[in-house]
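User: Please predict the structure of the protein below. I'd like the answer in structure-token form so I can feed it into my own downstream comparison script.

Assistant: Understood. Taking the following sequence of 602 residues as input:
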Amino acid sequence: MKMIRDLVLCFVVCVAHHKGVFGEQSFITEPSDVEVTPEHNTSLSCKIDNLQGQCRWQKDGKPVGMFTGKYEMRGESTGDCTLNIFNVDLKFDDGVWECQVTSSSFQTQDSLVSRQARLTVRVPPESISIQYSGSSVVDGGMVTLVEEKKETLVCVTRFSNPAPIISWRFGDNIYPSDTQENYTESITTKYRSEGTISLSFQQKHQGKLLECVVSHPAYLNGDGSANVQLDILYKPRVEITQVSNSVLEEMKGSVALTCLAQGNPPPRVKWMRYGESSPQYVETLEFNPVRRENAGTYVCSADNVIGNSNEETTEVNVLYAPKILRISPSSTVNIMVGNTTTLTCRADGNPEPKYQWFQLYPNSKAVKKRSMSPDLILENVSYEDEGEYVCEAVNSIGGENRAVRSEVVRVEVEGVPMVTNIMKEAVAVSGRDVSLEAEFCSDPRPLKNTWEWEDVSLPSGTEIKRSGTTYKAELRDHPDIKDCFISRLILNGVGQADSRSYTLNVQNKHGVDLAPIRLAVRDPVSMASVIGVVIALLVIFVLVSVILLVAYKKQKLCFKGSDIDSLENSKIKKYSNYNGVDVEQITPVKEKHSALPPSTKV
């Protein structure tokens, strides 16, 4: 086993020795890309293992000779073929380099060619400019764009090496280019680069700066840049201001409407009022004094070459007192009892007026409110509805009521008589007089007005006497209500036999109405009864007085004289000056008492 191990070890050593002497050459290190600033020094690394041939360098496919102070190899004899390049120059040194090694012999064919290495001589752009619509804009100049339209701008750099990185700064934000294309300039190896961005802008960006930012390794103190100022074209926006009195009343107040329009280019302002077709091209509408025909909805708008603005509206609310427009019926309405009629009132006012219907009683000058709506509906008409009616329209302006009344509408009621007010019962004292009374209305006047009982029918204006009682019938016009009457039956010296029901019978050409009254006759109270009541009351009064006196004396014995005096003095001090008046100066008023109860008149 030991012999086998020694043989293997001897074989490995022999192979290694043979390869070191007779093995093929190969790359230990190949050149890699490098960037360098002009006039600086750099090197392209290339190291060969078992170097047998000769090292050569090639640039852009052409061999490069070694020149002291410009191109030198470090140590070719040791296998280090690294190329030192001094005072780098874009014209001579920028390009693609290769490290090559010739064959060790023509039999081995072991020549070497390294991978290509790019040596870039850094050169910053000679110029930076921003283009819009194919034209260059002066650095810091104005570029005109349309709001909310996607606009494309191009940042162009010339004669740089390598190509730069182009981005954009807008406000506090950095945006990469949407696309960047790099071209070789026609007469040099330098680059032309174009970075494109597409953005939409708004009115708020007016006057802002858009900056093209160019990053390049040759810039030692930051980035290069160019910028433009934005001129944003936008369609108008409008706003309305209204200046007026706190209470805009007709012929007393004034109002000014101003349409404030913003736009680029400057817009044209237009006013319209709903319902009208003729615009007014002014900024301010002024009404002084304001009239009701100026009221309405006003629309403000504006336009420029970019477009039309939004529309803004404002209300001009002119206040004015009510005015009666129509009253129906216009003067007089005739209606039969029991029917229905409607009185209509229409008024114009701002604020919208509230309505009231009043019934007037010319004879008594009384007024009765009948309705709080523009239409007064008289249903199941009676004589109480007859009279004069007026409509009142009321509104409030600045806290003050403004009212107007219509012309009088006369309601004439015709029909069957109607008893409107009558005594249901009456009480009389035997031997005295009593009057039975009823009120009724009739149009036309009654043909018949009689008081009837048992077999008696007593027309108004007549009288009779029976069993010691005189009966008299009267008819008088009502003092306050037109077409209404007061009918009375007067009984002089009534007796127990007069206790009965009496009926008022009223007739006209349209019909009849009957109304009964019940009369009750009582005997007078005797003198003995009156005297008895008075004596009973006197006895009660005496008993109460005695009880109070006894109670007072018992209370007085419970206190010493000094205590009573002290108490009395405190009372005197407490009440000696009440409301600024000396109590001693007040004269007491004695209450009067009546021994008889009040009488009742029938």
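That's the full token string. The CA atoms of residues 171 and 209 lie 7 Å apart.
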